[in-house]
Structures are given as C-alpha cells and as structure tokens.
Write a structure and sequence with these properties.
The complex is a heterodimer of chains A (about 260) and B (about 250). Chain A contains ten helices and two strands; from the N terminus they run αββααααααααα. Chain A has helices at about 15-40, 85-110, 115-120, 130-140, 155-175, 180-185, 185-190, 195-235, 245-250, 260; strands at about 45, 60. Chain B has helices at about 5-30, 45-60, 85-95, 115-120, 145-155, 180, 240-245; strands spanning about 100-105, 110-115, 125-130, 135-145, 160-165, 175, 185-190, 195, 205-210, 220-225. In chain B, strands 2-1-10-5-6 form a five-stranded mixed sheet. In chain B, strands 3, 4, 7, 8 and 9 form a five-stranded antiparallel sheet that branches. The chains are: A mainly alpha (about 260), B alpha+beta (about 250). The interface of A and B includes residues 53, 84, 183 and 187 of A.
Chain lengths: ~260, ~250
C-alpha cells in the first residue's frame, strides 16, 4: 500500500526484525518439509485409519499417483526414483529448524504481547457479525479500511492465530506420533490420535490445510500489492523511500516488539 | 558509528562468543554421554545429531507400546528383500540346522550358537508393531530371546559402545548403541505368531527392536560384533543404511 512517508512522519516499521527472520526461517523449513514429505509419501501413497495398515490392507484412500517402491499396488506399470534417504534426513533437520523457530517466535510473542495485540481479534470484532461483514467486504472486493494498512483485520487475525496455535502444533504432534521411539515415551499422543496410521493420515490432512493457507496467503499478498508486501516482510517497511527514514529512527531505542500496534492511529 | 550501533555490535559479539563456547561445551558433553551418531557428518549431520541426542536423553529405558492379542494383524506384510544368496539357500535346504550365530569382537567369551542353542536360552514374547519408513505397519507377536541373554554369555568389555550385527546376505549389516542393545525389547527373534519365524519376515533369525523403524531389524542374522567404535566398519557410518543414504538411527 502506498504509505504516506513524508519527511516529518517516517513510515512506521511494519514487521519487527524478529517477525521477519522467523517468518522466512519458517518458510524455508516449510518448503523443505513439504517437498521431502511429498517424496516420502510417494513411497507409499496409501492412507489408513487406526493402528496398522499395509499393502495387504484396504486403505482409507489412495493417491492416484505412481509410487517410488515397486511393491505398492498403484495401477501404474512403472516405479519412480526412490528419494527417501535424503528426504528423510532433510525432513527431520527442517523439522528441528521449524521447532526452534516456533519456540523463539512463540516465547517472544507471548512475552511482548505480540499475539494479544496484533493477532487476537480486537474486542468488539469477535462476533459472527464482524466476520460476516469482513467476508462480505472481501467478496465485494472493497478497498481495505484505513486502519487495515497497519493492522490486521479480524479474518487475517483469525487465520494467523489458527495457523500458529492450531495447525503448526498439530503438524508437529502428528509428526512426533510417527516416531516409534517418541511413542515409547508418550504413548498417549499416538493413542489419542487414534493409532499410528490415523496419525499419519492426520499429518497428511494438516499438511493440506497448511498448503491451503499458503496458497491463500500468497494470493492475498499478490492482491494486496506483492512488491510492497514483500518489501515489508524483508526490509520491515512497505516503501523503498522510507529507507532513509528507517535509518533515522534506528537509533531510537524503540522496543521492536511493539511495531504493528503502537503507530496505529 | 553511533553509540547505539556500537553497543549493538558489542552485544552481538558477546552473544556470538557465548554461542560458540556453548556449542563447544555441548559438543564435549555430547561426546562424553554418547549423544553423537556415527553418521553425524555432512549437511544433515546437525539434524541427525539433534534427533539422536534428544531421543537418547528421553528414551534410554522407555518401552515400545505392546498390544493386546486381538490387535495382531491378520495380514502382516513381508517386505521385499534382495534374492537369497547361495549361503542362505544352502542353509535353507538343511532346514537351517547348520545356522550359526557367532558373537565376537570386544567380548570375554566369543560364542558360536546354533538355533537350538538360542532356543534353550530364556524365551520371551512381545506383541509389537513393525513400522516401515515408507509408512505402512503391522502388529505381530514376536518370540525370541532378548539380546541381553546372549550378551550376558559373551560378556562385552566395559569399553564396548556398539553391537554391530550382520546378515548372511552380503553387504547388509547394522549396529545399535548399548542403550538399544541392552533394551529388554531387543530380541533375537526366532518365532512369529506362535510359529517359526517365516523366511519372508527374517527367519530363521532376525534381530528385532520395536523402538526403531523396520530397517534396523535386520533379517537373517549370523554375526554379532561388540565394538567401541563403528569407524572400521564399511565407510564408518554405523551401518550399511547410511551408505545408501538412510539414517543410522531410525527411532526418528
């Protein structure tokens, strides 16, 4: 969005350094997890429910794709190259990056009030009516409210909170439930998810929801102005002109935590 | 340079120095307590080391889930293996009466045991799940003797850190650390679901450990070696799996 970054009023920082760094670390880890997870799935593109399931069991559903192992019945007469080795190594390494990033971001967000201030839907907007009105506005493709230039609306807040506090914890929990060694420590997790194969199927479904979020997120960024939004998430501010202003404000010992909200009109 | 940026630089330097010395200390502790896997090198080494160290701190003595008899899979799946070699085929024609399990390396009493020797050792059973890295699984009852009963006879020396185990099939071998070797659910498995262990499932002798993925449960075991380092074996990565690109530690 074209922010009025005049000489007397430098454009405020839109995303703090911590948000920007953790955003891109999460993105890198997510892409690595998605690609390698896909590679692992094609070695057995069948999903089951309950504790067990294998080539001789009826699946809950199958992906209609060829497999990278020749014992799996897929209906295809050929086998894809097997990429599981490095995919598994990278999957778990990227999972560590994701977990550490989530810990830093999560603790920071709680301590600084980032979640409460910037992501929790504001008082008065936590009503079906407020959601309905914002959805209608999107459907009409109405321009964003003035306040939305610097603050998330109720739908954005809900989506981000859902991803941060529901989908990411779920993807980590369902992933951990696939570790036979972890299950020897906390068997209640895999049992609570309905068994090992249920956990694997849920891991896949949660992945689909995260991909859905990614697609909508990127689409909204594109609709909202791809260059300015990308610049905001990389450099902190939407407009290139404010770089000098940014340097001027950098020496002010402002808590970088209060970024989104403090400057709200 | 403004005072603020200088202060930031100094603070950053202190944090970086603390981080580096912290990593150094972590490395020393990890080595002392055996938290570094043999395949700790390369691009994926840090992730693999974190996984193994975390699991070793969490799971030294924990037990894999055991299931009620009613949950034994009606359709267990024998994964494909390389076609049997001549040594295996010869033994098969003799109904495995000539099968030997040798125990060597850093032990007080090297052993050579027949299958009936193994059957005379304390026999245990467990109903546990086989979990393949591909994603499928099944539950079966496994009958055998805990690896500890053989190790108790052979008496590994105090410096032993790994038990390497070898299949009769060429270039197929594995190793586990002592936490897994001494674990009560690590079995030299001779039977499955009340019968002899079928060839497809690793018969006549499979080393099974239910806290790791199926590929650590090596089929057709003929040799155990106690060692203080995996460096002299193969490429020194701990087993034949890392040489094919798979992690040595498969508890995930």
């Amino acid at each position: 969005m074209p922010a009025p970054a005049g000489p007397h009023r430098p454009e405020p920082l839109r995303h703090s350094a911590l948000v920007r760094v953790t955003h891109w670390l999460t993105f890198a880890a997510f892409v690595a997890l998605l690609v390698t997870g896909g590679e692992i799935v094609i070695s057995h593109p069948r999903f089951y429910w309950g504790e067990t399931g294998n080539d001789l069991t009826r699946p809950l559903f199958s992906l209609h794709i060829p497999a990278s192992r020749d014992m799996v019945p897929t209906g295809y007469g050929y086998t894809l190259p097997d990429q599981n080795g490095w995919s598994r190594y990278l999957h778990f390494e990227a999972a560590w990056v994701l977990v550490f990033t989530a810990l830093v971001y999560g603790i920071w967000g709680l301590v600084t009030g980032h979640f409460r201030r910037n992501l929790l839907p504001e008082a008065g907007t936590r009503t079906p009516r407020a959601y309905g009105e914002r959805i209608a506005k999107y459907l009409r493709r109405a321009p964003a409210d003035a306040g939305e230039a610097r603050s998330y609306n109720v739908l954005q807040r809900t989506a981000y909170l859902g991803v941060i506090f529901i989908l990411f914890p779920l993807i980590i929990a369902t992933g951990l439930a696939l570790s036979p060694s972890f299950n020897s420590v906390f068997p209640a997790l895999v049992d609570g998810l309905g068994g090992r194969q249920s956990a694997r199927t849920l891991h896949f479904f949660v992945t689909l929801l995260l991909v859905l979020f990614l697609v909508v997120h990127v689409a909204m960024v594109a609709l909202g102005g791809f260059r300015s939004r990308m610049r905001a998430m990389i450099a902190g501010r939407s407009s290139a002109r404010s770089r000098a202003a940014a340097a001027a404000t950098a020496s002010v010992p402002a808590a970088s935590s209060a970024v989104l909200s403090e400057e709200r009109p | 340079m403004s005072p603020m940026t200088r202060r930031k630089l100094i603070a950053g330097g202190v944090v970086a120095a603390a981080g580096v010395s912290g990593l150094g200390a972590a490395d020393r502790i990890a080595r002392r307590y055996g938290l570094i896997p043999p395949d700790h090198g390369g691009l994926y080494g840090p992730g693999e080391t974190l996984t193994y160290a975390a699991q070793r701190l969490l799971t030294r003595h924990t037990l894999a889930r055991e299931f009620p008899r009613s949950m034994i899979s009606k359709t267990p799946f024998a994964n494909e293996t390389a076609p049997p070699g001549d040594a295996f085929k010869r033994s098969l024609t003799l109904a495995f009466t000539d099968w030997r399990l040798t125990v060597d390396g850093l032990v007080e009493h090297p052993l050579s045991l027949s299958l009936s020797d193994l059957r005379s050792l304390p026999t245990h059973n467990q109903i546990t799940e086989v979990v393949c890295e591909e994603g499928w699984s099944y539950v079966a009852e496994w009958i055998g003797t805990p690896l500890t009963s053989v190790l108790n006879l052979a008496r590994p020396l105090p410096q032993v850190r790994y038990i390497a185990y070898f299949s009769i099939q060429p270039d197929w071998w594995e190793s586990i650390d002592m936490a897994d070797a001494l674990h009560p659910q690590t079995f030299l498995t001779l039977g499955m679901n009340d019968g002899d262990l079928p060839v497809g499932f690793g018969g006549p002798l499979r080393l099974r450990l239910p806290r790791q993925l199926g590929y650590k449960s090596l089929k057709y075991v003929t040799r155990l070696t106690a060692t203080d380092t995996m460096k002299p074996f193969g490429k020194g990565l701990g087993s034949s799996e890392p040489e094919n690109g798979y992690a040595w530690y498969a508890g995930i």
